Structure formats: structure tokens, C-alpha cells
Amino acid sequence: KKSEVSxxxxxxDIKPKSIHDAKKWSADVENFYRFQQAGYRDEVEYKQVKQVxxxxxxxxxxxxxxxxxxxxTFNYFDKQRECRDKEVHKVKVYVY
Length: 96
Known about the structure:
Elements: H1 2-12, E1 18-21, H2 27-37, H3 43-50, E2 56-57, E3 64-68, E4 74-76, H4 85-88, E5 92-95
Antiparallel strand pairs: 1-5, 2-3, 3-4
């Protein structure tokens, strides 16, 4: 039964067409950073793995507020920017 379910999930997998490192900070890079801190590629992968339709965000900034990690613990993020300039180049930007 389990292999049947994972077979269906594999078909639903959306793979990025390309990937590059972020060059400068932006709101999108900030959100990629937050997903990657929680152990996901990006919002698309998070929604696939956790089977959720929406991600909790700060209304003021639109940044991701809370993510459930793969081990079912949670990462909580501030309203303010968390991805510092020296971390920006480590962020992977996925293009679909």
C-alpha cells in the first residue's frame, strides 16, 4: 500500500528547471532562506512534503512565519529580515 502512495507522490513532484545562488538580498531570497533553514528546497517542496495549501506568513512583510520541519519540530521566524548579507550567497534560488 505504501509504495502505491509514494508512486502517486512521485508523479506529483514538481522539479525545478534551473537553480542558481542568490546574488543580493530580496524578499524572495529571504523566503528561500527560511525554507532552506527548515530543510526544504522552497515553498513548492514544502507544500508537497507537508501536504498543506498555505504557509503561515507575517501580514506586514509577507515573510514566512512558521515552518514544520521534516522531524515535525517547528522553525519560527521573525517579522524582520533574518538572512544576513554574508548568508545571501548560500541561498539557492530555484526556477520552475
